[in-house]
Amino acid sequence: MSLLTDEPLGPRVTVRAPAKINLYLGVAALAADGFHPLTTVFQAVGLYDDVTVSEATEWSLRVVGDPRLDLDAVPTDDSNIALRAARRLLAHHGMEHRAAAMTIHKSIPVAGGMAGGSADAAAALVAVDRALDLQTSDDDLLAIAAELGSDVPFSLLGGTAVGRGRGEQLEDLEDAGGWWWVVVESDEGLSTPAVYRAFDELHAQQGTEPDPHALELPTTLVEGLVNAQVDLVGVTLWNDLQEPALHLRPDLRRTLEDAGSCGRGAVLSGSGPTVLVLCASREEADAAREKLAGLGHERVTAVPAPVAGVHVVEHA
Ligand code: ATP
Questions:
Q1: How close is the Cα of 185 to the center of ligand 1, in Å?
Q2: For the GHMP kinase N-terminal domain, which residue ranges apply (predicted)?
């Protein structure tokens, strides 16, 4: 009997992982370890990547998805974070000899500031765990997730949470829920390290220090989330990376202006270039989506939040 390399050796498991947005992103001065300490409020939104895994005799990775996404920017070699996650999990179990065939179906914008790569890594951890029956504890999955990247633990958990440190120290945040966001994508991605460099350069040029209160969680935002006060949340949205991202991509200023003309508040998502509009209802989000499409924004989607973290959608 010949063993074809793509012949599955076990069940096929598909795991879905949500994109994240930041309702608040406060960034402190660069620390000695080369990272910026931050305080952020994460929310998982209804825009998902799916990762499908089955055990195989050799490693393989396919990336598919919406042709409007920049899929060519997603590596298919060992630098892909989902593949790194899978290998790291097997190493944790001392099972480096096993391998998997993996397909990533992307809907989350690439280099869009919505942690698409982190979502893939989180989904890959759970998909490999289930497909290869590794029975990893949740604590170990979370620890491996934090080693892979600062946003990966939140992708596992979903919901709404405060992230501290580099974003990996998570604490659940009470959220009355029922939010709707309009996601305005950009044709071109933005590199997260480049945006952090611009943050440092802008402060150096202006002779200013990052806000010493940046790491304090805004109490008005917490209040708005607990009491489902959409206008309060809308006016509290804040992102310290917005100015540096606009410095690198001045065209986003118009997108933010257009976004600010609908809904209850607009903000850049993470390191950008995706722009978010907070809306009070699905109807308001649909109206905002149509208005933004009419203003020439081509990739605009209405999504609910908060949503669950990674979850198995198929086990065949
Ligand atoms: P973040 O907000 O977490 O900084 P992002 O959402 O801006 O990230 P990603 O889509 O996660 O950006 O990708 C950033 C870069 O990581 C890409 O440009 C790509 O080169 C690399 N990359 C590695 N693995 C993946 C993956 N599975 N999906 C997307 N990009 C990946």
A1: 15
A2: 80-159
ipTM passes above 0.85: yes
Cα dihedral across residues 139, 151, 166, 42: positive or negative: negative
- Whether 18 and 52 map to the same domain: the answer is yes
Q: CA dihedral defined by 47, 288, 269, 186, rounded to 10 degrees?
A: 80
118 and 207 assigned to the same domain: no
Q: 2 pLDDT exceeds 50?
A: no
Q: pTM of the full predicted structure?
A: 0.94
Q: Whose CA is nearest to atom 1 of ligand 1?
A: 115
Domain co-membership, 80 together with 164: yes
| 82 domain residue, yes or no | yes
Residue 271 marked in a binding site: no
CATH number for position 191: 3.30.70.890
Question: Ligand 1 centroid vs 226 CA: distance in angstroms?
Answer: 31
**Would residue 139 show up in a list of annotated catalytic residues for this protein?**
no
- The number of distinct structural domains making up the chain is 2
In the set 50, 120, 129, 151, the catalytic residue is: 151
- When the pLDDT of each residue in the chain is averaged and rounded to a whole number, the result is 95
Task: Say if residue 83 is in the same domain as residue 117.
Answer: yes
Q: Residues with Cβ < 8 Å from 256, sequence gap 6 or more?
A: 242, 246, 266, 268, 275
For the CA of 269, the closest atom of ligand 1 is 2
Residues 151, 163: Cα–Cα separation, whole Å = 9
Strands (E) located in 211-299? 238-239, 265-268, 275-279
Among 74, 148, 241, which residue has the most ligand 1 atoms within 8 Å of its CB, making it the best to mutate?
74
Cα atoms found within 13 Å of the Cα of residue 32, Cβ hemisphere only: 0
Q: Judge whether residue 247 has pLDDT over 70.
A: yes
Residues 25 and 164 in one domain: yes
What is the pLDDT at residue 8? 76
| Domain extent for 86 | 13-173
Query: Average pLDDT, stretch 127-155?
Result: 97
44 and 79, same structural domain? yes
